[in-house]
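Suppose you are handed a protein chain with no further information: no name, no annotation, nothing but its sequence. What can you learn? This example shows the usual starting point.
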Amino acid sequence: MVNFALHLPGVQISGDYKAVLNTCREAERLGFDAIWTADHFYAFPRPTSRVFLEGWTTLSALSRDLDKIRIGTLVLSNLYRHPAVLAKMASTLDVISEGRLEFGIGAGYQRIECEGYGIPLPRPAIRVKMLRESVKVIKKLWTESDANFSGEFYSLKDAVCEPKPVQKPHPPIWIGAKGTHLTMRVVAELADGYNVPNSVEDKQAMLTSLKEHCRIVGRNYEEITKSMLLPTYVYEDESEVKKKLDELSKVWGRSEEYMRNTMLLGTPDQCIEQIESYKKMGYSYFIFGVGGVTAAPLKILNLLAEQVLRVSRKK
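A reasonable first move is to predict its three-dimensional structure. Written in structure tokens, the prediction is:
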């Protein structure tokens, strides 16, 4: 089964919850399977804006303002919240949303946010160890009546998390990572889904690494849903595609080849072909970042749904 979802940071940057809600309602109407917020305090890459709606709070509001679409975070930074508190928050949100939560989490990486908010940023290997413990803590709280855990970074003593999540045994746990070694081992051990960030050019290599780590830990590789994040620009005319490529290359200081490898950018036929190539690799869940709240991004959202996703679902 193939799933298509919408990523919301391009709307979170507006600071306008009504704009976020209107975009999400349009995605729900168009048949998207889920919407995902970003867990950041600033907009990036520079940051480009001082305005950004906090992702978890936004998700909580959306859980009651949307009727059917699933909701998730791509991905929560493990550094920003204690895992026991986060488990309680997520369990409550799964109850409020009547079992629609997709739980995405990662090791955390954004130095500018950590420095600005006074949050410690350990070296990568430590952050991955913390992530492994966090996921174990969260699973215990979601599935055990009185949870106990003693780790290097976190501990529980007869901890209670009630009510439990609606979804059994628990909401799907997604781990986002671009490293092929340390974090990928955590994915193989503990995740229900894996997300490759848009910055990764060689997406086939990520799945090759995941498959090897699954072999090492004795996990069925097919049990893990593979997803990718794709900033998305769909245009009916090739000249518009070229114009956007030139614009993005200047903004990001990257080559056109890099842009094409890390984004879904092209005419509807080109985008369908690109999605099909990713499906052949083994990806089955696609999360599209359609930025902004103006008529142009909403036009792209409609074009994506009606001329790309409708065709791709049938292939």
